[in-house]
Amino acid sequence: MLRFLSAAALILALVTAPLAAAPPTAAAAPDTALRADLHCAAAFAIAASEQARGSAAALALPPMAVRGKRFFADVGARAVEQGGMTQAAVRDLLVAEVTGMQRRAAADPDRELAAEVRPCLARLDAAVPPLQTPDLAQCAAILTLAWEEERAKGPDSAAARDLQTLAQVLIARARNGFIAGGKSGDSADAAIEAARDAIRREAADRPGGVDNYDIAHCYDLGAPDAKSHY
To answer: Which of 22, 104, 141, 194 is a plausible cystine mate for 199, CB 3.0–4.6 Å?
Structure first.
């Protein structure tokens, strides 16, 4: 059994989410475009599952935790609301797609995953906007929120300490950048606080919260300088 068959469980969980009821007489098969979207939804579910597992091949693909799941949910809803399919029919088709991918991936699962996902990325970009690239101040705010969440679980944990260090590095770099751009120290601090408040609002009110940002970029911005020893 190939490792990404576990994505079938993700598919089952997602398609049992409440959707609009299909018409009582609906027994339609998906048209070509909808069938292609459902195929891509299954591929994205697999990629998201593999990325959560830490698969290097999956992590080489665009992040799917937010965008892939949103695409999946939207396509599933459209299949019921506009395509006339029942939830059971959507589920069965998606599981069949996963089974087909599993069969084709017998020799090389990583290669098959990329081969299934990459042709679908244009559909993903058209349906769900790409992740936003945060600036230094936004990254400082995002990592500060992550640190606060981790600290609430265990203030002395290694994860909390690492996030605190990274957040402090990003805050310092953001502050220096503002000052280099002509702001006073007080104005730089105010700009950092404003960015933090904005990110807090997004985390609370925007679907997907900070996961709409390319958080990996923040780790790049917080990486040690070539001549640094911290």
So the answer is: 141
